[in-house]
Fold:
Amino acid sequence: MGKAMGPLDITAAFTSVFVLLDEAGQGCVILDPYDTATFEVHTCLLESLRGAEAQKIALETIRFVFAETGGMEILTKVQTANRGADLFARQSGFIRVADAPDLRSYQLTIERWPYLDEGLEQLCPSALSEAASDGHHRRLLGAMTLMGMRGFMGKAAAIYNKHARLQGYPPVQVCGPDSLTVGGLTIHFEQPGCVRVEELCPLSPQVRAL
Structure:
């Protein structure tokens, strides 16, 4: 993260990395996969994209990795002397996990994503939002919905259930190749980008409440 320290030649790696470009051409984010679950992130942003805009880009990158790919963790390294990049990593939710003489290493796992991404609450389908216990529950349901829309059913259920057990929310179950159930509701992801929620059977408000 932070300003580029020198030229970076990635031409040989274009078959395996993700390169996310700012529409105005003022910055880019490079995601280098270690494997299907772990990505190392590198950012190069001009001064015009610092501050709030940089945080927005970081959040969009995090959402892309966890919702659009099989990613479970993001790693990054910053120069020890680069205080701006170090602050950017911490403000983006990364946790410092290792130090070297000139570098600091940071990690962000998918478990922290719902706590960091407030916009997930707005992505919770209305039928689920009405039955959710609180704002954090809606964030979890929003994250689960995004992953389900991309076909990551097992991943969506596993991440949701880890939080749900800790917070006392009802668990989710995978009930088909494109469906999940929670609290008497079935969520169908039959077509890319489409979500359909239906009630399994008539339930009392006490039973249906998530």
Remarks:
- The first strand starts at residue 18 and ends at 21.
